[in-house]
Amino acid sequence: MTSLTAIPAYAAPAPKAPLERTTIARRTVGAHDILIEIKFAGICHSDIHQAREGWGKGIFPMVPGHEIAGVVTETGSAVTRYAVGDRVGVGCFVDSCRECEYCEQGLEQYCVQGTVATYNGREKNGEPTYGGYSTHLVVDEKYALRIPEGIALDEAAPLLCAGITTYSPLRHWNAGPGKRVAVVGLGGLGHMAVKLAAAMGAEVTVLSQSLRKKDDGLRLGATHYHATSDEATFKELRGSFDLIICTVGAPLPLDSYLSLLRVDGAFVNVGAPEEPNSLNMFSLIAGRKTLAGSSIGGIPETQEMLDFCTEHHLGADIEVIRADQINEAYERVLASDVRYRFVIDTATI
Fold it and tell me: Least packed by Cβ within 10 Å: which of 12, 221, 274, 301?
């Protein structure tokens, strides 16, 4: 089997350092592995958090990227799921224990022993993992996803994180006809939450700091759009929603947002602020409300999401960039200056 060395990639050499072109080695293609020629890699806000150690100590040099779309170019001798030429994706993890109750249920993201992250993690042999800001990836076939022909690869790449991160809680909390769903924040995650919730048949409201993106929100499938900077919003919408999906990565006044829920409503965090948050417990007690979190999705649900997006003709709204624009893109993400996901054309690495 092929032994890959000197694979072009973009890496952060140290915490908070600009990313730069480098080379990395990939493992030999094993019996159950596939070799993917990466075509596109999305830039997730979590890439920035990790490259700048906002969530804790990282492993450097770090090659970010867990929104990966490409084509199989080689298969191991025991591979049965994929063939050369297949369109595939890889999301936030590339392995798990495979034995715990959650792995057996297809909830690998909650693996008791912890998943092997696609980047800024370590393989079971201790070697660091490198992500999708590169030209090739070797992965066990069980941790790859099939990208249907109905989705362009560049628009599919962000679905491997932004898509499944929002799809999973919408499904778990039963978004659909007759349900009123609010999406907090209209960014990379938020724009997919709006598309998915609308496609599921829910009545969707966007809650954003301003009305700057209102036209986009309505175009993406929202019925209503409100500015959270306007205090009247919280009075007007009090007790309105069955489900709120919070996609922002900054602390919020949770008591105010919980007041927007109906009895038995749920406020679900998929954004992960670097700072802690606080709330008054009476905000939960009064109304039997739920404050929850949700982490990506397992392999079966991620495949379900990709098939759902194909059926409903959904892809991410993207801006394709060259690899030498990554550092600029990071700053634009922090400034909320992207509609709505940067995707790297990895042929430019």
Answer: 274
